[in-house]
Structure formats: C-alpha cells, structure tokens
Design a protein that fits this description.
single chain; alpha+beta; 2 domains; 3 helices; rod-shaped
Length: 129
C-alpha cells in the first residue's frame, strides 16, 4: 500500500501565491484606470464655483442694463471683472460656455464648465417682473 499524501506541497503553495498575485495586479490596475475616469469631487467643486461666478456676472449685467439687455458680459469685449474668471478657467484647464434663451418674459441662463474629466452645469431662470 502506498502512503497517502497529507497537506500540500511547498511548490503548490508557491504556485498558488503567484497566481493570486497576478490576479490581484490585474484587478488593481483595472480599478486604478477606472478611478482616473471618474469625476473628481474637488474638480467639480471648482467647476461649479466658476459656473456660479459667471452666472453672477450675467445677473449683474441684468441689473445694469435691464431685462432686455441681459447678455453674457464675458463673451465679447469683457470688462475687467471677467479677467479673474478667465484666468481661473485657464489655470484649471476649464472651458466655459454660456447660453441665454428667452421665451416670453423668462430667460434661461445655462452656464457649463467642462474640463479635467468633469462638467458642471448651472441653470438659472430670470423673469421680467
């Protein structure tokens, strides 16, 4: 009668550890690449801050020119108060776009800030009352 083997051999244990290590490295690298594609909360917070500042600039223009003069002052020949926003956007690799849509007595202001893997969109409605 042959002697029955009990337990595992050292070579089997080493092969098992190597296989588990290879699987773990594969999972970690795919997990890491997925994390880089997610929106960074800090980046989104900065983008929202910029969208809010641009919306406030548009609303200040409304108070200065009235409802019929509601435009984005930072688009063509921007005044001095738009310069810090443009500098901030450039420094953080953001692109800012604004859209003003008027329907009757209501204007919808949509400011979108994109860049660094995230997008922040701020929608504001203003009425002529």
């Amino acid at each position: 009668m042959g002697k029955k083997q009990q337990g595992i051999l050292l070579i089997e244990l080493i092969v098992f550890i190597i296989v588990i290590g290879i699987v773990a490295v594969g999972l970690m690298s795919s997990f890491s690449s997925m994390l880089s594609l997610l929106n960074n909360p800090y980046t989104l917070n900065k983008a929202y801050f910029l969208a809010n500042a641009r919306t406030q600039a548009i609303l200040v223009q409304r108070h200065a020119s009235g409802f019929s003069g509601l435009i984005d002052p930072c688009v063509s020949s921007p005044p001095a108060f738009c310069t810090p926003m443009a500098t901030y956007a450039t420094a953080n690799n953001f692109t800012v776009a604004s859209l003003l849509t008027t329907a009757g007595i209501t204007t919808t202001i949509t400011v979108s800030v994109t860049g660094n893997g995230g997008t922040a969109t701020l929608v504001t409605r203003v009425s002529n009352y």
